[in-house]
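Re: the request from the purification team.
They wanted to know what the chain is likely to look like in 3D before they choose a buffer screen. I agreed to run a prediction and write the result into the notebook, where they can find it.
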Amino acid sequence: MARYDIYGIGGALVDTEVKVSDKFLAHAKIDKGVMTLVDESRQRELLDALISEDLTLIKKCGGSVCNSVVAASSLGSKVFFSGKVADDADGDLFVSDLNRAGVDFHSADQDPGTTGKCLVMVTKDAERTMNTFLGASDTLSSKEIDRDALKNSTWFYIEGYLVTDEARTKAVKDAVEYAKEQGVKIAISLSDPFVVDVFGDALRDVIGSGVDLVFCNKGEALAFTGTDNLNSAAEKLKVITKSFAITDGANGAITFDGELLCRSKGVLAKAIDTNGAGDTFAGAFLYAITSRKGYDWAAKLANDCASRVVAKFGPRLDPEEFGAIKAKFGI
């Protein structure tokens, strides 16, 4: 029996989330609604500008897959996470926050340097805009892969953000090939339209002969498949993956379990902050299928969890909120 339900690997970033105005984004010359990679000095400049306006900053361990495995753990999955942090205060914050969430973290030594940070700016329309300094996460390598934990996992979950660098792409591709040899199922998130547009070939290289599950939103699905509608995108995705889940905001999700294509209704919510919704959807979905639930049930649970995330400020739900979800779904 596998020791872990899910082994996740991704950027180990300290998420710093803050509410901002469109005026602030325009004044700071920030492209709205996308993830932009920045250097440390640019991120420091933005943080100083935010602090000068006396805005409230929320800091947590983060990164896309990190948020997903925290959600899965909160629902009851046994999970492991690999990422790279530095030997600094933010690195200590990341590890302690992850451990409090019940997630096991790889034991590789923390190198000197700066832990990566993602500045998440949320506007009044609930749109998220991210400026990311990868820091130590930029040098993630095979050293951060715990092969013993990986081969003793049911699923290996990877974020597309990792393929924005050639060395990281190779490390991830090697880990995927090892996992396949060990009979571990592979799930991958396409992560962001920016990643799909610029690093689509690297994503395809990691996917190789195919994977077991792809997570993406509507925009990512259309961009990755080069189509202009979800029906066509779904058909093209079937060629590279055994199953998939495409999220479409308030419209819900389209899932394919290898046989049946299902459309799951979205859950009405007043959107305050979309950050973390897709990550939480993926984590809840993985929890469900590793608990031997069908894809339709998994999508209903995941849509419910995601709707609760967008209705609050911050990328995650509190333990009390997960308690209410468990009660509702009989978990």
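For the purification team: Residues 166-181 form the longest helix (16 residues).
Please add any questions underneath this entry.
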